[in-house]
């Protein structure tokens, strides 16, 4: 330093969170049908979103090592679900589709979120602009397994055929009765709101046994 050197001045700057740590409480590393049951399709679960500061340019996990930014508050932050498994299945929908982040000492806001479909999902928060500039969002780890809330069953009783068809059809007592039209059960997996869950029939997700 130069002896006696004095710096003076003032400036104004904007400080923004680097993004949002998004946690579900139902994270599953395998991200497939082997994940344990987490919530029924359409059932609320607590989604925790924490505004955090920068740690490093190579940071890939905003939930590890990042300090909270308690002053952050913003309305209408978008929420969405992204299907992980089954591959090529129905992404369903989340409720609500946005939330308001409230300033808090922990930097956290908790939202009761629901996912309408069966499967494993990531959940993404997209803030958009904050104090005149773009701000990063966040995405959860794979979460699930979401499973059906109930089953709707339709019964077709079918009809029996006669054991003997010579002349007037008849069947002897104790003789096996063949089916004319086999009986049938039609079973539909549904979410909490009563909607059909398309992903339940995917390989590995259908746990209802034929027996």
Structure in words:
By secondary structure, the chain is mainly β. The chain is 0% helix and 38% strand. It has no helices and 16 strands. The chain has strands spanning 19-23, 39-40, 45-52, 74-85, 94-95, 98-101, 108-115, 119-126, 128-130, 133-135, 138-139, 143-147, 150-156, 159-160, 179-181, 184-190. The strands form 5 sheets. Strands 2, 4, 6, 8, 11 and 12 form a 6-stranded mixed β-sheet that branches. Strands 1-3-7-5 form a 4-stranded antiparallel β-sheet, with no helix packed on it. Strands 9-10 form a two-stranded antiparallel sheet.
Key words describing this protein structure:
single chain, mainly beta, 4-stranded antiparallel sheet, 6-stranded mixed sheet, rod-shaped, 0% helix, 211 residues
